[in-house]
Amino acid sequence: MNPTRTALIYGTAEPPLPPRRLAAGRLSADLEGGNLRTIRLDGVEAIRAIAFLVRGPGWETFEPVIEDLAVTEDADGFRVSYRAIVRDGESRLDYAARIAGDAAGRLEFDCDITPETDFVTCRTGFVVLHPAGVAARPVRIEHADGSIVAGRFPDLIDPVQPMLDLRALTHEVASGRAVTCRMDGDVFEMEDQRNWSDASFKTYVRPLSRPWPYTLPAGEPATQSVTLRPEGEAPPPAVARAAEGPIALTAGPAVGTMPEIGLGCTPEEARVALPHAAELARAAIPVLVCRFDPGQGHGVEELRACRDLAAACGSAVELQIVVQRVTDFAEELQEAAALLQAAGLAPRAVAVSPAADLKSTTPGQPWPETAPLEALYAAARAAFPGIALAGGTFAYFTELNRKRPPAGLLDAVTFATCPLVHAADDRSVMESLAALPAIARSARAIAGATPFVVGPSAIGMRDNPYGPAPLPNPTNRRLVMGGADPRQRGLFNAAWTLGYIARFGLGGAARIALSAPAGPFGILDVQGELPVFPVLAGCAALRGAVLHAVSGGPEEALAALLAVRPGHRELWLANLTPERQDIVLPAELRAGTQHLMDAETLAAAPPDLTTARPAPPGGRVKLDAYAVLRCLAGG
Predict the structure, then answer these.
(1) Which of 42, 144, 184, 569 is the 20 to 30 A CA-CA neighbour of 204?
(2) Chain segment 596-605, per-residue pLDDT in tens
(3) pLDDT score recorded for residue 237
(4) 470 upstream amide cis, omega within 30 of 0
(5) Beta bridge partners of 216
(6) Residue 70, beta-bridge partner list
(7) Which domains does the chain show, CATH number per domain?
(8) What is the 3-state secondary structure (H, E, C) of 479-545?
(9) What is residue 321's three-state secondary structure?
């Protein structure tokens, strides 16, 4: 049975749910799951999202059952109403929502909350997302006591909360036009969601300084609301014009060097992958970033599994060592060195991290007792003499930003990311790529002169710093904090991976590790190579090439990577959207060969980016949903 187009793209037969566009005069918004996305004023995104969320005692996000949904639209505005039911075992919480927008650009979103039973939650209420593009721009802040001060959105990523005790925020949307977002019903504060690779600043209900999880008492109602009010005159009506032409790309100046590409690899993943080592060797991935965790029962046999796979694939090994002990950690590292020798594994680098640092420490909470980093790094140098040493965090950039290592004692600073911490829909996952340049700049500020390396990362959650483990996903869904993600197997992941490499490559990462050899995060499955395979293989072959900027494409719709060697230019493009895109290639790439991978090519043959096709006239190409294009030219 041939897979459907949906399965080829997303790795699942479950199609994405299209949003419903609501529009009235100056205002438009997308209605998704009872919440609002991409709220535009005069055609310009003003607010990324307004959502009413219910999160459980482990910060898991519940999906409400929506009933009695009613939507009306006319020339004066739009109105939405519905009832929602949230269950957590025997506990239940209901809320009634009302949304109203008018042609003048005013918007109101209200919710009446009724716990039917005592309901335990870490957060129940509104969150408002300002797009990451407002970074470093001014904002007028109204505090809960009514005082108003001038502020600014952070440029480098703020490790905690850049704004506290909030009632309203006013920021410029376009020249001469601004919007005020007012939040009532509780006290709000803001966190810089770029920490988690979300392309937004999140203003949320209930300060983290208050106890959590907390209980909403049965039968005790509450009301929250968010309102938007535009400031400034609407622009004159747009003059009718022809349909927009294609996206014209231009090659820019050199900005860096192509990093080394690696794969993540646990001992379990190594065992699954060993029977497929010959096929994996074709990818020529130079390094496996392997995890060694005595707390998970890892010993000499686990190290041998990593050794055997690396040898069969011709890859070097970087070993991440999770240090369990708080006091006699030097002895533990010496024991790990002895196990490495017994296993015959000689890693080219080791990274060390206290086990407690695999879990998140929320602002205001006490830090767990761990080995002092300066002493830990000195002990690692003694246990592994002559081997490069990395440190930082094996968790996400958030934890690196909140617990910054003494980078001058290290050969590399390490961290990972995951786009599923707060949302799992396709748009949110792709939007996360827009946050990576800010993460790269912030990581560089933390690391100083020390190189930084990224990963292992993937769409799915390899580790869960916020709960016991990533959530199981037996029904193959798009799941917040999910481990196995269906999109790993699809064209979607190939496009996301190219965008990830492009953003961090241009941002100066020295090494980027993604996916895994096999298993839930694998580049192979039982049927062979997945679409991400040729992307990682092709990017790995570009190591050391000079990277050039590519301008002209919308940042959140297109990923571009231009690598140049003497006599050779190679341009990689990925459509990051489900809509077809019409593109004109840079002049110097129009006469070369092209290699396309999209849903149509995948339906006819295994994933491939080596089969050439003729260059179209004028360098004009059409990229289908999440398609990847590789262009080769001389010069």
Answers:
(1) 42
(2) 999 999 999 9
(3) 61
(4) no
(5) 119
(6) 81
(7) 21-231 (2.70.98.10), 247-252+549-633 (2.60.40.1180), 253-548 (3.20.20.80)
(8) CCCECCCHHHHCHHHHHHHHHHHHHHHHCCCCEEEECECCCCCECEECCEECCHHHHHHHHHCCCCC
(9) strand
